[in-house]
Design brief:
With 251 residues, this protein is mostly helical. The chain contains ten helices and no strands.
Amino acid sequence: MSAYSALAEAGYRAYTRDKTTLFFTFAFPLLFLVVFGLIFHGQDVEESGRPYIAYIAPGVLSWGVGNAAVFGVGFVLMQWRRDDILRVIRMTPTPLSAVLGSRYVLAVGIGLVQAVLFVAVALLPVMGLELAAGWPLAIPVLVLGITAFLALGAIVGSYARTPEAVAAVANFLMVPMAFLSGSFYPLDAMPSWMQAMSWVLPLRHLNDGVSAALTDAGGGADIAVACGGLAAFAAVFGAVAFRVFRWSDRT
């Protein structure tokens, strides 16, 4: 526990001291929300009759939270391994679970703060989001989503050897996934084959769960399906992450 606490505190201090990363972690998804929200303000999706903001807000929020988790842990693991920090940690009685667990707690905290700030902006009259009564159910969905994407980021960070490689691989995964999962464009307006293909992407499940909770786009069964899908992705990605994790680039 002492090793876990020390790593968690060190991670928190490093994150809050990096003002540029701190700013863009929260500002980047908000920029997409504002741009899309203003462009499609007052418009409805023809296929469903629901307002665009009901798709855009949960979708961009889900992508922003997942993106922060992937990039956050991916860059840290790569840098710690490159600078031999992980090798030094390994020489202490610190288990791998403490290393990843400390990053997990930080990622969950960042994701929940992102969600609160994001929803607050989406509720502004100029955005027009109407929050459903079941909005608290978005919390477990977000936590499971962060878990899945943090595990995916751990895989990326275990393979990539440079910051450029982390950025390239993470963007290769997250940007297409945003479009194919309905974060930037409503799935209801996409071809049926693309909607079917999106089920194999974790972001689709995160989008569906958050949307069902925040905008009443589905019931409890839809949220349960989303949580089940995210839990499955988290288990698979987590198993792979523990398998491929490397303490040093020398081995």
